[in-house]
Write a structure and sequence with these properties.
Helix content is 20%, strand content 39%. It is an alpha+beta fold. The protein folds into 3 domains: 83 residues, Pseudouridine synthase; 134 residues, 2-Layer Sandwich (Pseudouridine synthase), CATH 3.30.2350; 52 residues, PUA domain (Archaeosine Trna-guanine Transglycosylase, Chain: A, domain 4, Roll), CATH 2.30.130.10. Strands 1, 2, 3, 4, 7, 10, 11, 12 and 13 form a 9-stranded mixed β-sheet that branches. The protein has a 5-stranded mixed β-sheet with strand order 14-16-17-18-15, with no helix packed on it. Strand 2 and strand 3 form a beta hairpin. 32% of the residues are buried.
Length: 278
């Protein structure tokens, strides 16, 4: 069995838990295209069978979130489920003041990943160091924020929507926003509303997917990669190079409405097989 499921991940479950449930249900190899924190909800693309080979190409560089930022407290995890390590006064906030600060984050900037992330340093994940009480020096990463908009404001807490490049940590963004507002802050909710071309309205609940799955075809989800249909895929099965002058770094060959291989640009006129999908 091969398939792609778009899940609206529930809170209180890890991404691994979601995949494990689906694996038990369908008894096949399972993977996913992007981890969500246990308390986070929203878009999670789960791939089954041979479609797990598509994971690197379904993993989009653009993601959209709705988040809540709580002002006045800072925790050891960057979210409200961690231990409070600092408290600070919060001055009067207005929508104009907050949006003015949010606008400062637009564009390309650098961000230091939190110690609770799954990034590996010397073969070990950062959160594993954190559990041991160790702090490791982490290099900052380049991120891009294309859109950030305040959506509501309550006392000492506000909601916002943000579109970011992959690898952006919203909990860290909340902390940085707090600093610019001359206080401290932490993330109190997170919902992924879009990942690449997959939107929340395309997703099923986990229970729905288990009972009556809606299988998504791969080609629409691969639309960010140029697709070339072939009548005879023999040269692809033999791993031969493809000669063409194109700008795209990757191309996806399609045979009988199914992706069969990803080719990567080798030079100005040649593409080399990177991964067979059959």
């Amino acid at each position: 069995m091969n398939g792609i499921l778009c899940i609206n991940k529930p809170a209180n479950m890890t991404s691994f838990d979601v995949c494990a449930k689906i694996k038990r249900q369908f008894k096949v190899k399972v993977g996913h295209t992007g981890t969500l924190d246990p308390m986070a909800t929203g878009v999670m693309v789960v791939v089954l069978g041979n479609h797990t080979k598509l994971v690197p190409y379904l993993t989009s560089n653009k993601k959209t979130y709705r988040a809540t930022c709580r002002l006045g407290i800072k925790t050891d995890t960057g979210d409200v489920w961690g231990k409070v390590i600092e408290e600070a006064a919060v001055s009067t906030m207005t929508e104009k003041k907050i949006q003015g600060v949010l606008d400062q984050f637009l564009g390309t900037t650098s961000q230091t990943p939190p110690m609770v992330s799954a990034i590996k340093v010397d073969g070990k994940k950062l959160y594993e160091y954190a559990r041991e009480g160790k702090t490791i020096e982490v290099k900052s990463r380049t991120i891009t924020i294309d859109y950030i908009q305040l959506t509501s404001l309550q006392e000492n807490e506000f909601d916002f929507e943000v579109s970011v490049s992959a690898g952006t940590y919203i909990r860290t963004l909340c902390e940085d926003i707090g600093e610019r507002l001359n206080t401290v802050a932490t993330m109190s909710s997170l919902n992924r509303t879009k990942s690449g071309s997959v939107t929340l309205d395309m997703c099923q609940t986990l229970q729905e997917a288990m009972e009556k799955p809606h299988w998504h075809q791969p080609l629409p989800l691969l639309k960010e990669i140029r697709q070339i249909e072939v009548d005879d895929p023999t040269f692809i099965y033999h791993g031969k190079r493809y000669h063409a002058t194109m700008e795209e770094p990757l191309i996806c060959f399609v045979y009988q409405n199914q992706p069969i291989a990803i080719y990567k640009k080798e030079n100005e006129t040649t593409y080399k097989s990177e991964r067979g999908l059959w």
